[in-house]
Design goal:
38% helix, membrane
């Protein structure tokens, strides 16, 4: 016991000496520890009586100044001065810390970048190919020497072209790291570049960016404008939405949630949504659903009190169904811990190809929604652990693999890989205007400007992007798609067996 006390004392002294102190204090402390240590060793000092002394000694710490991260706020002109882009924003990313190189592989859905650009891998992309996408594009974005220039061809619906704002924030996030590039962007819902029109070795499909695509189209999926806020529906920037939904998930435990499938939205945008309303509860039948029509005009008048996304995680199951094409509601629905009932759709955005049926969502037949939804809820209520796990897996995917840092990294890698394919040197097109955060945000007002300010990147990131994973080899990609198809067919077999058994009993 005496030997242990001696060892413990020596350790305490050593830890004490490692504190950052002034030199004079350190010298006194050193001799004090040596002197008392000698007494302990020869047995002339009772360590038990002295055990708390070291902890009680107050040692002044050296004043270490931590360099403050430089911030670059909006520099809005006042008076009648024309707004211009500031010249003092950094053009290079300063990476001086040892841990600034981020040796983290990007989430698996980044691998689809290679697939989306594969069609131009052999031929490259010429200026003529880019300009041939002009027919439906809303704007052309060119980056030359670290500056962004935009030429608009038409007005997009509401604020959909705010994806430009997102790219400007990416340039603040990774200053000087985007190469020169030239691209066309279509903000409408449905993809337009059909694969069947561009077959053979001499095919020259126009590269066109948009928010979704299909297996039969070549349009390149890009993060949608709502990641930086959607003023038209009072939906905040994605970083804030994620926090709110995470808190909303905590309010009601999964087992205490309403054991039905929930959907709220605008049915007028698509026939498939009007068909969904037939599955609502009625006097004659209950399909295990609770469906509500969202009137955005009325919501706007009432201050969006019934539209808070964090308040809509109250049911065990939530339904996702496409609109005119893919719907921005998808990520908000998946973020709830509720099991997502995903109505079959051919449209995909940039991240959903990283998700799988029975792992992140439950597939629902589009051609028999009501019976499919009723069975899904019945199955979930009889397999609560499995249903809860599916809901949580989707929520974790959205919270972790879809955080804003990865949104910027996805944009970074997609634009870099795209630029590698260009066979010409990008130049500023006639009529294009230089854009920056100031020229976009300063003239705005109201909630639109509020969301821009809230989503403004204030400082460059102090680490490198995540590492882009390699492309799929043909066999691995085929196996992945086959596995997902089998999972969907498995659900359909369970569903058919359920209804056959039920019909026989009746």
């Amino acid at each position: 016991m005496k030997k242990n006390n001696q060892q413990r004392y020596v350790c305490n002294c050593w830890n004490f000496l490692k504190l950052p102190v002034e030199e004079t204090t350190l010298l006194v402390s050193y001799f004090l520890c040596v002197f008392l240590g000698a007494l302990v060793i020869v047995g002339c000092f009772n360590t038990a009586a002295f055990r708390g002394v070291i902890k009680q000694i107050s040692v002044p710490r050296a004043n270490i100044e931590v360099p403050k991260k430089q911030e670059f706020q909006l520099q809005c002109a006042t008076g009648n001065v024309t707004q211009t882009c500031p010249a003092n924003y950094p053009r290079t990313q300063n990476l001086q810390k040892p841990d600034s190189v981020l040796n983290v592989t990007c989430p698996s859905y980044f691998r689809w970048i290679h697939e989306d650009l594969r069609h131009w891998k052999e031929t490259g992309i010429t200026r003529d190919m880019v300009e041939s996408a002009r027919r439906t594009a809303h704007f052309r974005l060119v980056i030359v020497d670290g500056k962004a220039y935009v030429k608009k061809y038409g007005q997009s619906y509401e604020t959909r072209d705010d994806s430009i704002w997102g790219i400007l924030q990416l340039m603040r996030w990774y200053p000087g790291r985007l190469p020169d590039l030239d691209l066309m962007f279509d903000c409408n819902d449905r993809p337009v570049i059909q694969k069947k029109h561009f077959r053979g070795p001499n095919a020259s499909p126009p590269p066109l960016f948009r928010y979704c695509s299909t297996p039969w189209n070549l349009d390149i999926a890009f993060p949608d404008w709502t990641f930086w806020g959607w003023a038209g529906t009072n939906i905040k920037p994605w970083k804030d939405v994620l926090k709110d939904i995470k808190e909303g998930n905590k309010r009601t435990k999964w087992k205490d949630r309403v054991p039905y499938a929930y959907w709220r939205g605008n049915p007028r945008v698509a026939r498939t949504r009007q068909d969904l309303l037939k599955c609502n509860v009625s006097e004659s039948h209950d399909w295990n659903t609770r469906l509500y029509i969202q009137n955005w005009r009325q919501e706007s008048k009432n201050g969006y009190k019934q539209s808070n996304l964090e308040d809509q995680c109250t049911h065990r199951y939530k339904i996702y169904i496409e609109g005119r094409a893919w719907s921005v509601s998808e990520k908000y629905i998946l973020a709830c811990d509720s099991m997502t009932l995903y109505v079959s759709s051919s449209y995909y955005d940039f991240y959903t190809r990283g998700m799988a049926p029975l792992q992140h969502y439950w597939p629902i037949r589009d051609n028999s929604k009501c019976t499919s939804l009723q069975f899904a809820v019945e199955w979930g209520n009889n397999h609560t652990k499995e249903a809860q796990a599916i809901g949580e897996a989707a929520s974790n995917f959205i919270q972790e693999d879809m955080k804003m840092e990865y949104i910027y990294d996805y944009m970074f890698h997609l634009l870099n890989e795209y630029a590698k394919l260009l066979k010409f040197k990008p130049t500023i097109p006639p009529g294009a205007m230089e854009l920056c955060s100031e020229t976009m945000a300063c003239p705005r007002d109201g909630i639109h400007k509020k969301f821009m300010v809230e989503s403004l990147v204030m400082s460059p990131r102090d680490t490198t992007p995540c590492i882009l994973p390699p492309p799929y080899d043909p066999t691995s990609l085929r196996d992945l798609l086959d596995k997902r198809s089998k999972s969907t067919r498995q659900v359909e077999m369970w569903e058919d067996e359920y209804w056959n058994t039920k019909n026989k009993k009746s």
